[in-house]
Automatic annotation (TrEMBL):
This is Adenylate cyclase. Gene3D superfamilies: FAD/NAD(P)-binding domain. Residues 5-154 form the FAD-dependent urate hydroxylase HpyO/Asp monooxygenase CreE-like FAD/NAD(P)-binding domain. It comes from Lentzea guizhouensis. Coiled coil: none annotated. Pfam families: NAD_binding_9.
């Protein structure tokens, strides 16, 4: 009997097992799934987290099943989306606990679909090292692996030098410092008084919920007005970031026009052949793709807001480079309202060049900005933003096959800022907390210093300097192989069986095989997930989008079965 050991039992591992099941292999096989957290959900999606934490995706936009859009070689095996499985409002944003149950059910469903010659054994333990074809667990168990798969998910990292200094400063002066980590894992019990949060993305939203409503406060709605009633146990949160604004709200409407055929301008085939520089070569094509999705919806869904026929616009649009004076002239001639044109630079840095004489003036400005964002993302008149979102997803899916010199950190952050924002009601809660004085905005290009027995923070946006007794890094840890906290990766790195690219990601082949320090592909070890050069695609996706993760799982499953059969 052959042995497959999968370290990590989250949704990626479950998806890989589903693709193995889809092949219905004839060989006798035992699959060992190693994870201290429940299989299917794993650490990030485990049920044992605050019921206040929710997904940032609508229920109808989450599936773990392939469908008729799937282009992999393996068979399609359809199944219910999250909305269909739990019979909820398709446009709702379920709790992470609900998603946890969906993922646990999916894993059980996959195991039940395996042929009788394949057995799955779960090990609620942590893998601590891989030596040869042995995998050693922290409960004393050792497993033989004919094939080893690292499906480790999001990983912790050893602190960066700056974080060590901040932690040392906090320890020396009786302050509170929370380094980058996953919000559900953070110990926030000592966070009181004034605290600075560095980061304005989804991690901040989670922390905001845990430190406000999680401390006993409550939101009271009266018509369109949302008010926060404090419990008295909340800290006062000062938040800032590079942009100084929160991620854009998720849209709450459907396309009003024709659904665009995507991709149109950014395809992996156009970039095959050699390695590319992201900013110089790749981003202009992505920008044109996203703009195409935006204008396609504007012209087909809102023809009264444009001056020229769509056929004329699309022909001219296709012929012009995105970054050209002629393209800008076309936009102005065809789209009279500047609010109906897409501006990537303004979207990226909405506070660029803006300064305010007082912090209070800036609080009012940012509240107005967030209010306008929620209104725009809730109004079908602005469904062109959804067209851009769909094109952005299409471009992200194509990137899995584009060889780059390095993954551009700006791009991943920009994608999340535009496409992975919170539900609109979370931003309404942010506004209520701001009006109640619980949350204060610092501004753009935020800086933090550890001096005089405190944490100081400020920005170029206002002259105010905040003095606080706590600092929370409201962002996920940046994982690089040289600083990994994962013991298995460390054991493989120590003997040269694994290597990293210039961005610190674990190098893997197109099939997901580990690449060692000599540049050789490992014949029996694979890795998949956000810590690899295989890109950080989600383990579940929107239905009918030919999800890249599903295609990756399919390729890897076939390679694993071929290796086991050899």
């Amino acid at each position: 009997m052959r042995s497959l050991v999968v370290i990590g039992g989250g949704p990626r591992a479950a998806g890989l097992l589903e693709r193995i099941a889809a092949q219905q292999p004839a060989l006798d096989l035992v699959v060992h799934v190693v994870d201290p957290f429940p299989a299917g959900a794993g650490r990030v999606w485990r049920h044992a987290q605050s019921p206040l934490l929710r997904m940032n995706s609508m229920a109808e936009d989450v599936t773990v099943f392939t469908d008729d859009s799937f282009t992999g070689l393996g068979p399609v095996r359809p199944g219910p989306s999250l909305a269909q499985w739990c019979d909820v409002d398709p446009a709702s944003f379920p709790s992470r606990q609900v998603q946890s149950r969906y993922l646990e059910w999916f894993f059980s469903h996959v195991v039940a679909s395996l042929p009788p010659n394949i057995t799955v054994r779960e090990h609620r333990a942590r893998a601590v090292r891989a030596v040869g074809n042995w995998v050693h667990l922290d409960d004393g168990t050792s497993l033989v692996a004919d094939v080893l798969v690292l499906a480790l998910g999001h990983l912790d990292a050893e602190p960066e030098p700056e974080h060590r200094k901040l932690a040392d400063h906090a320890a020396a002066h009786g302050l509170v410092y929370v380094p980058p980590l996953y919000s559900a894992d953070a110990d926030l019990s000592a966070v009181t008084g004034d605290v600075v949060l560095r980061g304005f993305g989804l991690a901040f939203i989670d922390l905001m919920v845990l430190l406000a409503e999680g401390r006993g406060g409550r939101f009271v709605r009266s018509g369109a007005d949302l008010r926060y009633v404090p419990s008295g146990l909340e800290p006062r949160m000062f938040v800032g970031s590079r942009r100084g604004v929160p991620y854009h709200s998720k849209t709450g409407y459907r396309l009003q026009g024709e659904r665009p055929v995507l991709p149109r301008f950014f395809t992996a085939d156009a970039f095959r052949g050699h390695r590319w520089d992201f900013r110089a070569d790749v981003w202009p094509s992505i920008a044109k793709e996203v703009a195409w999705g935006f204008y396609h919806e504007l012209f087909t869904g809102h023809p009264g807001r444009v001056r020229v026929p769509f056929a004329e616009f699309s022909t001219a649009f296709a012929a012009l480079p995105w970054y050209s004076a002629e393209m800008r002239e076309l936009e102005v001639r065809a789209v009279p309202d500047p609010a109906d044109r897409i501006d990537f630079e303004l979207l990226d840095r909405p506070l660029a060049g803006r300064t305010f004489e007082t912090a209070e003036e800036f609080q009012e400005h940012l509240r107005s900005y967030v209010t306008a964002d929620v209104a725009r993302r809730s109004d079908p008149r602005h469904s062109a933003d959804l067209g851009a979102f769909l094109a952005l997803l299409s471009a992200y899916g194509q990137l899995v096959e584009v060889p780059l010199r390095e993954a551009d950190d700006w791009w991943h952050g920009y994608f999340s800022y535009l496409a992975s924002g919170p539900p609109p009601d979370r931003l309404e809660e942010l506004l209520a907390l701001s009006r109640a004085g619980i949350v204060r905005f610092i501004g753009a290009d935020m800086w933090v210093e550890a001096v005089d027995g405190a944490f100081l923070a400020g920005s170029a946006t206002t002259p105010e300097v905040v003095r606080a007794g706590g600092l929370i890094e409201a962002r996920l840890p940046t994982h690089v192989l040289s600083r990994t906290a994962d013991p298995v990766l460390r054991s493989l790195r120590a003997v040269g069986d694994i290597s990293e690219d210039t961005a610190g990601q674990v190098r893997v082949s197109a099939e997901g095989r580990l690449i060692n320090e000599r540049g050789e592909e490992d014949p029996s070890r694979f890795a998949v997930g956000p810590y690899t050069t295989g890109k950080a695609f989600a383990a579940f996706s929107r239905p009918h989008t030919n999800a890249p993760a599903f295609r990756q799982n399919d390729v890897m499953a076939r390679a694993i079965l071929e290796t086991l059969s050899d």
